[in-house]
Amino acid sequence: MHELFEADRSGLVDTIVFNGIVDTTDPRTGASVQPCLVTLRTTREVFVGLNLNMVDPSACLQHLNASVSKRPAELAPVRPVLEFDMVDKRFVDHVDVLADLDQRPNLLKLSPTEFESLIQNLFAKMGLDTKQTRPSRDGGVDCVAFDPRPIFGGKVVIQAKRYRNTVDVSSVRDLFGTVQNEGASKGILVTTSGYGPASYEFASGKPLELIDGSNLLFLLAEHAEVKARIDPSELD
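The structure assignment produced for this chain is given below.
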């Protein structure tokens, strides 16, 4: 991350995500595995404030709100902040990509009801007991879910925003307020667009998870077997 920020003399790069992935063999099965053992997102402003010659590595990672494997020697993975292979999931699985595009739904063209059902079904596929509530004014959906796992589970508030433009940080603040008001253990904000640095900075260290459009497409393909698209050009 230091090398990337250092090489960007014009200051064009504001945020960097790093996933530390090990290419190794699972001793239990002998299969090739690529577990992610450390993952973090940081901004230029935060990173340039570090004196890397003086920091303790573990303390520095904690300061950057990194997720680090609890048992790296056992290859216990952590969930990456961002899945970098999600674009490949969308395009390289098909030989004739152009011929197949028309068969894949454009999420921006779904009706509010269809989009609500899509989000609810997705999290149900991921193991949550979902309860859909009334739609919000922008055509998104609020969904209350329950993670049945003991200790780690609990009430989860899910908000979805079918946006073309970047989600404002105020929406992230509103989600945090909803989490507190609902007594939930976690809040998840899902959008068809993306988030700015201020949103990630606000969510850092809080029980909030921000899922942008690319991650949404990856999760739909991974858990619901839905090969979707997000194409604003079709709305013009």
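Interim note for the steering committee: Residues 85-102, 137-141 have pLDDT under 50 and may be disordered. Strands lie at 15-21, 24-25, 32-33, 36-43, 67-68, 129-135, 141-147, 154-161, 186-191, 208-211.
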